[in-house]
Design goal:
With 327 residues, the protein is α+β, with helices and mostly antiparallel strands. The protein has helices spanning 8-15, 60-73, 94-110, 164-173, 175-178, 184-191, 200-208, 221-233, 248-257, 276-288, and strands at 26-28, 37-41, 44-53, 79-88, 114-122, 130-140, 155-159, 211-216, 236-240, 270-274, 293-300, 304-308, 311-314. The radius of gyration is 19 Å and the shape is globular.
Length: 327
């Protein structure tokens, strides 16, 4: 199989289809595009999500916190706790583990999230440090937003820029290669993108100001996330390529490495769908909170297309992320 998360067809076939037991308390189960499970606790619901960090060598403590808390925020919920499992190869030093925990603790504190448990182990089963974390949140049941909530005619809003996380990872992990083409100033700006990978603020805003669905952009990039929103909602879309914001650093680095920024992992970028009536209110609130936000398309009845120069290009299910072509 290819490097990266399983494609949607294989995920359904060998993972989801083998989960037989369904309990009545579970409100949202594993599904394409649904990154969180939601469990009924009476008036409230418990929201949980888990993800590993496998594609980065640097800043893994920071990334582990944000990619998991971002999933919780995509349901319009404030994350409150995080559990972390650290698997490190033989030869890992105390300083390396301590640095990871300092990173994670610092980022979690910024989000008002407590690290509430986990596991740390040195093992010959891995050849680099792997972190898997689980984030949890709690919200009133009737206020939770799902990826599958997109509605026909909704506008699609994208926050920040495409390829955000991937650009930062590449700048850290391929710095020696990049300095043969780019100035130190460009590389440092690219590195700083990992400081902007939280979508907790926009997730909470989206929950309060009318988003019908939200999905944070991870492996597969912007186009992969758009396909997942449509698949979960059983609808189509028209996406206008010239409306998708791509930072200058991302565009230049991706061009140098011959990868597509629209298919590059992008934690820090959020997709939101919203009715035409609520669009301006949501955009205004995001921008007043310092969050770049752009309308990039709309939800349609069927067909998923990227429109460039008046030509429709079908958006396909996400495959292995562009990051794995270079890292």
């Amino acid at each position: 199989m290819k490097v990266g998360k399983l494609d949607s067809e294989l995920l359904q076939k060998i993972v989801f289809n083998n989960i037989k037991l369904h309990r009545s308390e579970v409100m949202v189960r594993p599904g394409i595009g649904e990154d969180c499970t939601i469990v009924d606790y009476g008036k409230y619901a418990l929201v949980m999500s888990t993800d590993p960090i496998t594609g980065a060598a640097s800043e893994v403590g920071k990334l582990a916190v944000h990619i998991n808390c971002n999933d919780i925020a995509s349901n319009g919920v404030e994350p409150l706790g995080l559990m972390m499992t650290i698997l490190a190869p033989e030869g890992t030093t105390e300083v390396e583990i301590e640095n990871i925990m300092k990173q994670a603790a610092e980022e979690a504190a910024k989000l008002n999230v407590e690290i509430i448990g986990g596991h740390t182990e040195i093992t010959a089963a891995v050849n680099k440090i792997i972190i898997s974390a689980t984030a949890i949140g709690r919200e009133l049941k009737d206020k939770i937003i799902k990826t599958s909530g997109a509605k026909l005619g909704d506008k699609i809003i994208m926050t920040k820029t495409a390829g955000l996380e991937g650009t930062g990872i590449i700048a850290y992990d391929l710095e020696e290669k990049l300095v043969t083409r780019f100035s130190r100033e460009i590389i440092e700006r690219a590195k700083k993108m990992v400081d902007n990978i939280s979508v907790v603020k926009e997730g909470i805003i989206g929950g309060k100001f009318g988003a019908s669905s939200m999905h944070d952009v991870t492996e597969g990039g912007v186009l992969g996330a758009i396909w997942e929103v449509c698949e979960a909602s059983k609808l189509g879309c028209n996406i206008y390529k010239d409306q998708i914001a791509v930072a200058k650093e991302t565009a230049e680095i991706c061009d140098f490495l011959n990868i597509d920024p629209l298919k590059l992992i992008s934690s820090g970028t959020m997709l939101m769908t919203v009715s035409t009536e609520k669009k301006e209110m949501l955009l205004k609130e995001l921008r007043e909170n310092g969050i770049q936000a752009t309308v990039i398309g709309e939800i349609t009845k069927k067909g998923r297309y990227l429109i460039e120069n008046n030509k429709k290009i079908e958006i396909m299910p996400p495959e292995s992320d562009e990051l794995y072509k270079v890292i």
